[in-house]
Amino acid sequence: MRYVDEFRDPELIIKASEEIYRLADPDRHYRIMEVCGGHTHAIYRFGLKDILPSNIELIHGPGCPVCVLPMGRIDDGLTVATNFDVIFAAFGDMMRVPGTQGSPFEHKARGTDVRIVYSPADALQIARKNPEKHVMFFAIGFETTAPSTALTLMRAKSEGITNFSVFCNHVTIVPAIRAILDSPDMRLDAFIGPGHVSTVIGCRPYEWIARSEGKPVVTSGFEPLDLLQSLVMLLRQLRAGEARVENQYKRVVPWEGNRAALKAMAEIFQLRPYFEWRGLGFISQSALRIRDEYAEWDAEQRFPIPGTRVTDPKAAQCGEVLKGVLKPAQCKLFGKECTPEHPIGALMVSTEGSCAAYYNYEHRKAAMVTSISSVA
Amino acid sequence: MCLAIPGRIVGLVPGETHLGTVEVAGVRRKVDLGLLLEEMPVVGDWVLIHVGFAMTKISEQDALEQMHLLQMLGETEQAMQEVRGYGFEETGEQSSGNPQPN
């Protein structure tokens, strides 16, 4: 158990692990999806696979916002910024994501005004300080981030700041889970529900997964003990033949979510009829657009958007990895053409992407073992 | 970007009801409190911060555990870089830790 020593409470970790061994039916193979990219990162970092029975397979879900953004949207945002002399502001995670004409960083090197911001409110601040320029915030993220964009737009409107707009790529997690469950090549037993998305939407939106699909969901924290306890809760339900939504992360996630955040989102956004997800295709009612009352701050209404559609390189199997059908290392490009230093797909760019997480922990570890044994 | 950063409210900004000063591992920055309108924090409360907005109130114990988690994930430096990067201090009253001319 590689990292147990640095865990806060090693004894509890061992206890939880033993309980998982006790609950898991050795004749059954469990496929449990962790929806959130933060969980994927933590699972690899802590080497949790090493302390779980081999018949528990953790499948990495679609909850990494950078990873599910289609390349065409990046191209569209950068085209607007370049053609209209607009300041392109985005989170650092976006900067190395490749578009067909290069990443935001590569556009910056070619002269487009690209800025890293840590908050949508910082993008608004750039607009305040540069009244002669237009600032476009390239917004990504699930319901964790969307309320912050919403509040920023409300501040822009109330202050009358009109040299600011949002290119909205916010997506919602539940329709993506539905798309995965509807996928014919997918078999899952249960879900580890996202932690921070749930602080906003609460636990109720997952109830249909238990009720209609008969699959347990446990909303989980991010620490090793949280994840192990969530697995214990899921296995208890599976063993008893039950399917309910439970909240392991009660200390942070209220069952009903955050009403102020939901209200801000409802005021600013409405559901798009459909939206393209990288690897998953078009999913109906799965993304947010800015309401017409805020058209002046909506980059898609202010600027002509090319509507670029890009097919991922044929050899890259991002879609299959994203759906959990393939493991990262089973993709033909993994670790060869596609590495964190030279990513081809977005799953290799973000630390929350399953390919980058797998590469940084499992692949490097395996490479090290190989080189040590070849020296020996 | 999914992981949240724990901080303690050390000041509320007069005249700017939606802004508060938080301290994260000794660094002070303004954050937006607009998502906590239904349970406004007071000085001394701990909050989880995501992209410059306080998302939820947490206990001191949970704040310490969250910081430990970031450390274990090797993301402390990234988190501090994010906190230092928030440009809010220029919007309202100056942060006591890092005064800036308006």
Automatic annotation (TrEMBL), chain A:
<dbReference type="InterPro" id="IPR042243">
    <property type="entry name" value="HypD_1"/>
</dbReference>
<dbReference type="InterPro" id="IPR002780">
    <property type="entry name" value="Hyd_form_HypD"/>
</dbReference>
<dbReference type="GO" id="GO:0070025">
    <property type="term" value="F:carbon monoxide binding"/>
</dbReference>
<comment type="similarity">
    <text>Belongs to the HypD family.</text>
</comment>
<dbReference type="GO" id="GO:0051539">
    <property type="term" value="F:4 iron, 4 sulfur cluster binding"/>
</dbReference>
<dbReference type="InterPro" id="IPR042244">
    <property type="entry name" value="HypD_2_sf"/>
</dbReference>
<dbReference type="GO" id="GO:0051604">
    <property type="term" value="P:protein maturation"/>
</dbReference>
<keyword id="KW-0479">Metal-binding</keyword>
<dbReference type="Pfam" id="PF01924">
    <property type="entry name" value="HypD"/>
</dbReference>
<keyword id="KW-0408">Iron</keyword>
<protein>
    <submittedName>
        <fullName>Hydrogenase formation protein HypD</fullName>
    </submittedName>
</protein>
<dbReference type="GO" id="GO:0005506">
    <property type="term" value="F:iron ion binding"/>
</dbReference>
From TrEMBL, chain B:
<feature type="compositionally biased region" description="Polar residues">
    <location>
        <begin position="93"/>
        <end position="102"/>
    </location>
</feature>
<dbReference type="GO" id="GO:0005506">
    <property type="term" value="F:iron ion binding"/>
</dbReference>
<dbReference type="InterPro" id="IPR019812">
    <property type="entry name" value="Hydgase_assmbl_chp_CS"/>
</dbReference>
<dbReference type="InterPro" id="IPR001109">
    <property type="entry name" value="Hydrogenase_HupF/HypC"/>
</dbReference>
<protein>
    <submittedName>
        <fullName>HypC/HybG/HupF family hydrogenase formation chaperone</fullName>
    </submittedName>
</protein>
<dbReference type="GO" id="GO:0051604">
    <property type="term" value="P:protein maturation"/>
</dbReference>
<feature type="region of interest" description="Disordered">
    <location>
        <begin position="82"/>
        <end position="102"/>
    </location>
</feature>
<comment type="similarity">
    <text>Belongs to the HupF/HypC family.</text>
</comment>
<dbReference type="Pfam" id="PF01455">
    <property type="entry name" value="HupF_HypC"/>
</dbReference>
<dbReference type="GO" id="GO:1902670">
    <property type="term" value="F:carbon dioxide binding"/>
</dbReference>
